[in-house]
# Entry
Amino acid sequence: MYAQMVETGVSAVRAQAEMTPEERAFQARIDADIKIEPKDPMPDAYRRTLVRQISQHAHSEIVGMLPEGNWVTRAPTLKRKAILMAKIQDEGGHGLYLYSAAETLGVSRDQLIAELHAGRAKYSSIFNYPTLSWADIGAIGWLVDGAAIMNQIPLCRCSYGPYARAMVRICKEESFHQRQGYDIMLAMAQGTAAQKAMAQDALDRWWWPSLMMFGPSDAESVHSAQSAAWKIKILSNDELRQRFVDQTVPQAEYLGLAVPDPELRWSPERGHYDFGAIDWTEFYAVIKGDGPCNRDRMAVRVQAWEDGAWVREAAMAHAERRAARQAA
Ligand SMILES: [Fe+2]
Ligand SMILES: [Fe+2]
# Structure
């Protein structure tokens, strides 16, 4: 997802008997669905895990602006351009809410950005794939934002108050993102043969990376059980992936496009779609920095940060002068 393979530092969920009285009290609050707020006591591992999860999520929002930003000048109509710019701005806003939520846990946004730029922080594997045609912008909205919603709606109920509240606001915007993407796909799928072929090509390239967004299968996810006990992971990777496939396949059929998976078929016994095996070697390579665009994304991010230094300095100087004037 936007946070993949978040380490908890805890490999097995602690039994009640092993917990300290403070840990037991904390778990009891979570079990009773009482939100944890920034000034409440919390175990260090919970705090550290949330910082990792929320910051990875924030990084994904702002790195996700890059593959789409490439298309602002090339959007086919004024209307599409305006929609795309609004969507990209929303993603910047999502990053802002999430960095702010992470800051309530005692880290600064500057620290988190520095980790990202130094290559020490993860962000979603999906944003390391190239956007080769306009149809890719449709596929990203439809599939990537669609997958994000799948994961983020349950997170509106997560145990950490600031994160849960940020998610509520983000989800409202994500549903617009998903629909604008589907609308692009629909226009192309109903367009000329060449446009339909572009839409099919985009689906062919984005389908498997979208399924990888949910992270490794549950059997491989060693940290998931603790995150589930803390209610910062509500549904498992495989459950979310299955929901996504079940929701998306009929949408592809409506577009008249073929999902690039020969093993995909409806299973009446399970009441779900069966689907083929995911290439996890590719996923791990992308997560470790060897995807098609990892280096390019970071270079562009760092360049944007450096180019914006004068704006930050000017804003700080303005704020200091204003504070001095008010003090006088
Ligand atoms: Fe977003
Ligand atoms: Fe989005």
